[in-house]
Amino acid sequence: MAFTGTAWLGKAFFNRKGDPSKYLKAVPDHSTWAEEKEDILERANWLVTKVVTSPELLMKESPKIIGDEFAGEWAIYSCSMLTHALANISCIYPDKKDSCPGLIAKMIDIVNTPTIRMYDTIQWKEDAMESLNGPKHHMTYLSILSWMITNYKFAGGDNRYDSLLHTLTDTLVRRMHESKYDLNLLSFPRKPIWLTDMLVTIVALKNYTRLFNGKHSDTLDAWLKNAKTIWIDPKTHLLAGLLPGASYRQKGIRMKGSCTALNCSYLSIADEDFAREQHKYMKQFFTKETDLMGTTIYGIKEYRNRSPKFSLAAGDAGLVIQGISAGGTAFALGSATYFGDWKMRYELLRTAEIGGCTITDGRMRHYKLGEFSLVGEATALAMRTNINRY
Question: What is the mean pLDDT of the chain?
Fold first, then answer.
């Protein structure tokens, strides 16, 4: 899932005058949820107008340059991240609890359509929902839909999706045990193992165990045990983002800042103690403060040992400026918020404001960058509100 667009970020930064912190509602080090309420809810309102629509119109929100296949992938991630944000908002602001389940239900229904999952159908050459008894993994689609339904339940939703949730979870668990990759599933056929993608399965599974008296907790515990031993980079003690294939143990581990940051945020939901440790190592090895045209920016490095001045990295990182990853910086908001790392959270939000450039009309607001990357806007809100609501 890509986060950024080159032109928007460049214009947003180079047109900004003065100290960007004055554009940010949050106060240094820590702000209360009451102080952030207007900002958060107006961003949620804007996202709802863009995401809660028909599948066809949602697909059109993606830039034409990425093509129809990736438009479906951006659409499903936009829905899942906004779903997570709304479930968080329903807990942070109880006066919004009544409205959130209905919006989440609409997004579940959008995602559960052949139009949106066409990206997955093209890759696997079969429809994920019509082949649940088969062996092909369909990991990203099934996991995201499952995670969305668990968020619906935690936001106060009814049992209308329970049967589907049981089916999805049982299917994923069966395929995990059938997999030759130590309980990992493939995002797409003939591709490497993306542990960052797999963590959506784990988050959905963790939520499922919370909802249904620990069912499938043995599978969850077995995967997390592997994550803490087999897939840890010995130099940084961080969980890998990418494993190249079947014979991946240790020697094939690859580390990038964007994957590390998203790993930490997902793990905060799945295993709090493990996530706290990972957050500490992420700060040690992947944070950076640098000067950019007289403005100090702080964020997540995409690469440990090099800092390209400007590059459009593949995948989740998006645009990299002075070594700092746009995607990684947004993802890191999740664990910073969860663990109350307020100083870090403020600095990340400040960098997001420098790059994103907030636009408001008094009722809704969004980053200018969100007009190019809706999924980036949804991700930033999901991570910014990633509280412990369990």
Answer: 87
**Cα–Cα–Cα angle for 85, 86, 87, rounded to 5 degrees:** 90
What's the half-sphere exposure (Cβ side, CA atoms, 13 Å) at 3? Answer: 28
pLDDT tens, position by position, 120-155: 999 999 999 999 999 999 999 999 999 999 999 999
Q: In this structure, are residues 107 and 151 in contact, taking their beta carbons and an 8 Å threshold?
A: no
- Strand 365-367 to strand 319-321: parallel, antiparallel, or no bridges (unpaired)? unpaired
- Distance, in Å, from the CA atom of 12 to the CA atom of 55, rounded to the nearest integer, reads 30
State yes or no: pLDDT of 69 exceeds 90. Answer: no
Asked if residues 184 and 244 have their Cβ atoms less than 8 Å apart, the reply is no
- 172, 142 Cβ separation under 8 angstroms: yes
If one counts every other C-beta atom within 10 angstroms of the C-beta of residue 14, the result is 8
Under 8 Å CB-to-CB from 170, ≥6 apart: which residues?
none
Q: Minimal CA–CA distance to 137: which of 68, 79, 197, 78?
A: 197
* Alpha-helix runs per DSSP H in the chain: 6-14, 33-51, 55-60, 67-92, 100-111, 118-124, 139-154, 162-178, 195-211, 217-229, 257-270, 272-286, 326-338, 342-356, 374-384
Q: Find all residues with CB under 8 Å of 105, minimum gap 6, and list them.
A: 152, 157, 160, 161
Vertex 67 angle, CA 63 and 72, to 5°:
85
Distance CA 325, CA 332 (A): 10
**Closest to 72 (Cα-Cα) out of 116, 124, 40:** 116
Residue 94 forms beta bridges with which residues?
none
User: Is-contact 317 365, C-beta < 8 A?
Assistant: no
Residue 2 has pLDDT above 80, yes or no: no
The answer for residues whose C-beta is within 8 angstroms of residue 229's C-beta and 6 or more apart is none
How far is it between the farthest Cα atoms of the chain? Answer: 59
SS3 129: helix
C-alpha to C-alpha distances, 338 to 235, 251, 269, 279, 342, nearest whole angstrom: 25, 32, 9, 10, 10
Q: Cα separations (Å) of 91 from 94, 95, 230, 233, 336?
A: 6, 9, 36, 35, 18
